[in-house]
Design goal:
Structural class: alpha/beta
CATH topology: 2-enoyl-CoA Hydratase, Chain A, domain 1
Strand content: 15-25%
Low-confidence stretches: 43-53
Mean pLDDT: 87
Order of helices and strands: HEHHEEEHEHEEHEHEEHHEHEH
Oligomer: single chain
Helix content: 40-55%
Largest sheet: 8 strands, mixed
Radius of gyration: 20 Å
């Protein structure tokens, strides 16, 4: 994503993302903000533009082809990297991100193709943003009544990725995978002391008690903090409700922590441990 969009994601919106991965994105952003050279590659001139509002069908199909393959009567949809929606070419290139639009297009293909009987989600993702995740998870859940659906977590299946996997009838994980991270958080950047030390004062003229809430140039008021906490609580309640609708997971295992494979199995987050993708395909 562009740096302004990355800032908005990291410091202005709730996240379903492993905190360690967020830290990596944050370092790239703060390095840029401090005037250091960007470690990220530049796009070629013929790459899709940042501000494009429409995506032509050929490009959409190509992106979907990149994450979907068909093996006999089984479709495999790969969910790799940070999860978000409406990604730019920069997002895909620099952060190896997964666009939920591509996932939804792949799900539509699976649903409409009568020759496809099975769906396997191959997941290696730390999670990502909130937008679109509940809706895509619901699509996976609905598809589970029409096709045989399973998910394999091989690497990471955390937060938003765990939510998506949970829509499948069965969720597998490799023993060394990290799973869970069931929770939501919002990180707000407070630069007020830095600005004060620089001799900078920002005067806010506004209409509405919560207008400019979360602005980086001032600390949060109690009302603003309560407002953001309510937002996070709402998303967290949706997340836990979705997870426990399909699996018996204790509240203690849904406090934002991640688990290795065996512990994830013990906590009910996954249904079985498998060594690899080929073994998962044999479960249909």
């Amino acid at each position: 994503m562009r740096y302004d969009r990355l800032f908005t994601k990291l410091f202005c919106t709730p996240l379903l993302l492993e905190a360690g991965v967020r830290t990596g994105f944050e370092r790239v952003l703060l390095a840029f903000m401090n005037g250091q050279p960007s470690p990220l590659p530049k796009l070629a001139e013929d790459h899709p533009q940042f501000f494009a509002k429409k995506q032509d069908q050929v490009r959409a199909d190509r992106y979907t082809d990149n994450i979907m393959e068909v093996n006999g009567d089984t479709a495999i949809i790969h969910i790799d990297g940070a999860i978000d929606r409406n990604l730019s070419a920069w997002d895909r290139l620099c952060f190896d991100a997964c666009d939920l639009n591509d996932v939804n297009n792949a799900l539509s293909r699976v649903e409409s193709d009568g020759s496809i009987k099975n769906l396997l989600l191959a997941i290696n993702s730390p999670g990502g943003g909130v937008s679109g995740v509940p809706e895509t998870a619901a699509r996976i859940q609905a598809l589970s009544s029409k096709k045989n659906t399973k998910a394999l977590i091989d690497g990471m299946g955390c937060s938003a990725a765990a939510w998506l996997a949970n829509g499948c009838t069965e969720v597998f994980a490799t023993p060394s995978s990290m799973c869970g991270s069931i929770g939501v958080y919002l990180a707000l950047l407070d630069q007020s002391r830095y600005l004060e030390n620089m001799g900078i004062h920002v005067e806010t003229v506004k209409d509405g008690a919560l207008k400019a809430a979360g602005a980086s140039w001032k600390p949060l008021t109690d009302d603003e903090r309560s407002h953001f906490q309510n937002q996070v609580n709402q998303i967290g309640a949706m997340f836990r409700s979705a997870m426990t609708a399909n699996r018996d997971i204790s509240p203690d295992a849904m406090q934002g922590q991640s688990f290795f494979g065996q512990s994830a199995l013990d906590e009910g987050i996954v249904d079985a441990l498998l060594p690899d993708l080929s073994t998962a395909l044999k479960q249909f």
